[in-house]
Amino acid sequence: xxxxxxxxxxxxxxxxxxxxxxxxxxxxxxxxxxxxxxxxxxxxxxxxxxxxxxxxxxxxxxxxxxxxxxxxxxxxxxxxxxxxxxxxxxxxxxxxxxxxxxxxxxxxxxxxxxxxxxxxxxxxxxxxxxxxxxxxxxxxxxxxxxxxxxxxxxxxxxxxxxxxxxxxxxxxxxx
Length: 175
What we know:
Helix content is 6%, strand content 41%. The chain is mainly beta.
């Protein structure tokens, strides 16, 4: 039996995509979740401790995550919790990992437009380069992220989401 966890936090590293030994696409990134609270005496908002997670995302969700996510974005991640003990150079520690089953933008501070991934013969979402085109491309990704950086849209920014070029034709079916 696996423990389930849902975490809201900021992507702390650029997502990296690799393939497992069996050729399964996998995307990984670090997620930082910091509790904020209002100090009763000063009335100011204060950052509490930060929890760090290593998030792994597999198969088509991993490809969609790689095409859609950027460092600095605020997301909601749901998945299976794993704790891994490690030892290196005389130091020991525990790494907290989440094998994600679902990821999405945290919409408290912005909006997003969902676009279904193109499908292939058997009705499964397409995978490979066409399915992992950057989200600001007109052919697709999950979210179109507005940014000042032309070469890396969304880097270091909160969710500032702009409509896709073809937003009028985007699938608006609830998910």
